[in-house]
Each structure stands twice: as structure tokens, then as C-alpha cells.
Amino acid sequence: MSPFFPSGAELGRHTIFPGVDIQTTACERMMLSVVEMKPGSVVESHSHPHEQVGMVLGGKALFIVGDEQKTLVTGDLYRIPGGVVHRVIASEEGLRALDIFTPVRDEYL
Amino acid sequence: MSPFFPSGAELGRHTIFPGVDIQTTACERMMLSVVEMKPGSVVESHSHPHEQVGMVLGGKALFIVGDEQKTLVTGDLYRIPGGVVHRVIASEEGLRALDIFTPVRDEYL
Prior knowledge:
Two copies of one chain form a homodimer.
Chain A: E1 12-17, E2 20-26, E3 31-37, E4 42-46, E5 51-65, E6 68-73, E7 77-80, E8 86-102
């Protein structure tokens, strides 16, 4: 087990909403979470004290963050400060994204 | 200008080594950096107190981190704790990757 190069078998795996699966790994201060949203699946409105940033890796989804909303596609970046309510609705193509949190979300290890 | 959805025109742009270009955006505690390495280009050995995690988005490169080295390809994740020396050598295909730093690297805003 390498401290620098996590293998697929070492990733944490969780289903966080129906049709929304994540694979995670953490360093000391940040957590990486590869998110797969099935077509039409929803990350329901929620917030957390952790700061979250990310990039869309594939597919398309409507991101509702605070009082703004935008349809994001492959390559788009997003920034969600701690405490800001957000919701994500996957398109008919689904969505693949990389989320990063600080501090580490221990419940997703 | 949205606090949540940075546009391409708002990204910071820097050439950090010959043939290595980055596009950046930051939240309060983390910085996202989209890295494009031309074929055969090199991120020379360096370290920084910032923790760094990332994902390969395309291409291939040899990552040398501390006393380990591994060729990473699309979808592979990496974790570089603060203070650990690292070097990256792009393959003949070049490399595209997403780096995330905490705290924000002010010199790359």
C-alpha cells in the first residue's frame, strides 16, 4: 500500500443517495471523491462545514449552489464554500465528477 | 462573476516549467489547478508545505514522489503530503491532470 499512489482496491466505496456512488481516498487534510451519478439521480439539498471544490469528468448535471444554478459539463469547475446548501441533478447522460473536501470527511473513508 | 462557477476567462494562467501550463481557481482553503504538460516536459523536483492531491485526466506520466515512482494514466489518483519532494515526467503523449492544493498557493492565483 503506497502512501502516494492509492490503488482502486484501497478506495472507500459508499452509496450516498439512490444512484449516486462514490469512491474515496484521503491525505491528511483533503479527501478525493470520484462520484458516479446515474441518469436522473439526485444529490439532495444539503450542506456541510467542509469546503468542497470539484471538476466534471463526464456527462452533465444541474448544480444548484446557494442562490445560483448552472448546468455543468465535462471540464467545468465548481467551488462550494463550507456551509453553503447545494443540490445536484444528473442529466439523462448521468454525471461523473471529482469532488475534493477539506477537512477529510471521516464518514466517507 | 459567480462565487461558485468560475468561467474559463477568470482562471489564473501560469507557465510553471517549460512546456507545463496551469489554469487555476481558488476557494477559501483549496486551489484547483488544471495542468497541461507537453510531451516529454518535466515538472522538476520540488516540494512545498501545501498538501497536494490530484487525478490524471488524460495522457500518461512518470510520477516520482518521495522514494516511490509510478507511471500514472487517465483516472489514476495521487496524494502528495506537504514537504514531500516530487517530480513528474510527461510521456510522449503529454499529460493533463487536476491538482488540488491546501492551503491556496497565492503565487498561482
